[in-house]
């Protein structure tokens, strides 16, 4: 894989002197790359992924798959995967996934197809992130899956006996929709058909992404219209793909669209379509459009034109389905001419950091009025935003979002800029292109 650039401890963002008018190429989607890696691993034979994301979150997935006996050869963003048809190397095996939620959840379910003992661990923050409802679902299917410390967080142990029973399972996926994705992806390899009854609220777009991708790879996942029940026939098999193209990362694209919104400029993201598989494309097509931006799909990609100065409107939105972009929205909200309220993202307090608290703390530091709610925030238009040093809490999205404020306000300094390596190692180079 390519080397991550070396960054200083702090990065000062220079304000733009004129509005951008440019096209940016963002890397491939994390969500799609890590799903495609699992589906390719489960398929029998060679698959080739094109425009795959090369970042920490996909590297830990690739390394873990290798430990499970799946050959993965990465040449830049072209990944060649030698699928083993659902056979994974017997335990004992130790997997380390740093702070990649998708890797932790998807691999936990994959290990349930193995034989023996698998131990999955991550960095300190990963040891605080919730996994209990995924473990509970696997237990219902005859797998001895548990948290080593008894706190529903990693390290996780999966003791498997080569048989995932299948049958009827109840699952709560409120803490993370990734639990359901993880289970659905391995479901065709169970002994019996699987019916999942979803209890509690489900953030649907990531699960829809899973279902749409499974269909591309030859597996049907049926869902009731209300998305409270999913059904997977056992015995289906993923078909290896000769050239599976990974869409540009829509969450990563949100920063560049937001830059256009902030500056009255125009930014296109190459290759992204308004009907992308990824729900986060709605940040542009719905949220920015509601704030007064013009959003248009063109031959070169999806393009956002920001409104003239002073005309960006605040929005009141349930951001639960696209919560990774709630931080992007928080960064541009102080520049709007009315307050912005984000609701229903309580789960994001258990992601890379407590994202609600981080947003509120860092915006307050810059003199922005913000009210913290248990499930979101209200951000008020700011007459003046102060310079300041942003704590990024090892959260790539805090770093990428707050850098946007620096495009308008002098003296914004981002601590630990290297944390973007989780999903977007060349973020700062892409950001620089806005100055050209
Ligand atoms: O399935 C996925 O690819 C993802 C689901 C979401 O997680 P949660 O459902 O845990 O919020 C999102 O935040 C994450 O970045 C990627
Ligand atoms: C929440 C995120 O990632 P994950 O859950 O995959 O670690 C993210 O990328 O914002």
TrEMBL record:
Q: What are its GO biological-process terms?
A: amino acid biosynthetic process; aromatic amino acid family biosynthetic process; chorismate biosynthetic process
The active site lies at: 324 (proton acceptor)
Give the chief site where it resides.
Answer: cytoplasm
Q: Which reaction does it catalyse?
A: 3-phosphoshikimate + phosphoenolpyruvate = 5-O-(1-carboxyvinyl)-3-phosphoshikimate + phosphate
InterPro entries in the record: Enolpyruvate_Tfrase_dom, Enolpyruvate_Tfrase_sf, EPSP_synthase, EPSP_synthase_CS, RNA3'P_cycl/enolpyr_Trfase_a/b
Please verify whether the record's keywords include Amino-acid biosynthesis: yes
The text of the family note is: Belongs to the EPSP synthase family.
Question: What PANTHER family has UniProt attached to this entry?
Answer: AROM/DEHYDROQUINATE SYNTHASE (PTHR21090), PENTAFUNCTIONAL AROM POLYPEPTIDE (PTHR21090:SF5)
Protein name as annotated? 3-phosphoshikimate 1-carboxyvinyltransferase
The species this protein was found in = Chthonomonas calidirosea (strain DSM 23976 / ICMP 18418 / T49)
Question: What is the recorded function of this protein according to its Swiss-Prot or TrEMBL entry?
Answer: Catalyzes the transfer of the enolpyruvyl moiety of phosphoenolpyruvate (PEP) to the 5-hydroxyl of shikimate-3-phosphate (S3P) to produce enolpyruvyl shikimate-3-phosphate and inorganic phosphate.
Q: Which residues form the Enolpyruvate transferase domain?
A: 22-430
Which residues does the record give as 3-phosphoshikimate binding sites?
A: 30-31, 35, 176-178, 324, 351
One Pfam family of this chain: EPSP_synthase
**SUPFAM superfamilies in UniProt:** EPT/RTPC-like
The protein's matches in PROSITE patterns, at most eight in alphabetical order, are given as: EPSP_SYNTHASE_1
Instruction: Name the residues that bind phosphoenolpyruvate.
Output: 30, 101, 129, 178, 355, 397, 422
* Keyword terms, alphabetized: Amino-acid biosynthesis, Aromatic amino acid biosynthesis, Cytoplasm, Transferase
């Amino acid at each position: 894989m390519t080397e991550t650039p070396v960054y200083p401890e702090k990065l000062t963002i220079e304000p733009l002197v004129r509005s951008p008018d440019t096209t940016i190429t963002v890397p491939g989607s994390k969500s799609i790359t890590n799903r495609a890696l699992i589906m390719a691993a489960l398929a029998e034979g060679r698959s080739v992924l094109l425009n795959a994301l090369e970042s920490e979150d996909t590297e830990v997935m690739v390394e873990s798959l290798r430990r499970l006996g799946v050959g993965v050869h990465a040449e830049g963003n072209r990944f060649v995967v030698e699928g083993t048809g659902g056979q994974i190397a017997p335990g004992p095996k130790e997997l380390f996934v740093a702070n990649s939620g998708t890797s932790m959840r998807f691999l936990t379910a994959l290990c349930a197809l193995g034989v023996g003992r698998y131990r999955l661990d991550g960095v300190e923050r990963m040891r605080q992130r919730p996994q209990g409802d995924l473990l509970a679902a696997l237990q219902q299917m005859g797998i001895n899956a548990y948290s080593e410390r008894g706190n529903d967080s990693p390290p996780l142990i999966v003791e498997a006996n080569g048989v995932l029973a299948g049958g009827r399972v109840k699952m709560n996926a409120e803490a993370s929709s990734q639990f359901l994705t993880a289970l659905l992806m391995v479901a065709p390899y169970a002994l019996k058909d699987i019916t999942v009854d979803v209890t509690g609220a489900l953030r649907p777009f990531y699960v829809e992404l899973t279902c749409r991708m499974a269909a591309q790879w030859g597996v049907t996942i049926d869902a009731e219209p209300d998305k409270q029940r999913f059904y997977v026939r056992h015995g289906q098999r993923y078909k290896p793909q000769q050239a599976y193209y990974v869409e540009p990362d829509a969450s990563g694209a949100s920063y560049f669209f937001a830059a256009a919104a902030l500056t009255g400029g125009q930014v296109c993201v190459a290759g992204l379509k308004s009907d992308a598989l990824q729900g986060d494309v709605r940040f542009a097509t719905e949220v920015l459009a509601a704030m007064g931006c013009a959003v248009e799909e063109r031959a070169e990609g999806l393009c956002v034109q920001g409104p003239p100065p002073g005309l960006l409107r605040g929005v009141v939105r349930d951001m639960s389905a696209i919560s990774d972009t709630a931080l992007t929205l928080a960064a541009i909200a102080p520049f709007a001419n009315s307050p912005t309220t984000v609701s229903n993202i309580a789960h994001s307090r258990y992601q890379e950091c407590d994202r609600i608290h981080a947003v509120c703390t860092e915006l307050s530091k810059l003199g922005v009025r913000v009210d913290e709610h248990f499930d979101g925030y209200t951000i008020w238009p700011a007459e003046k935003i102060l310079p300041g040093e942003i704590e990024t809490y090892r959260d790539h999205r805090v770093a990428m979002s707050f850098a946007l404020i620096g495009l308008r306000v002098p003296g914004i300094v981002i601590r630990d800029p290297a944390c973007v390596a989780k999903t977007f190692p060349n973020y700062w180079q892409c950001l620089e292109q806005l100055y050209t």
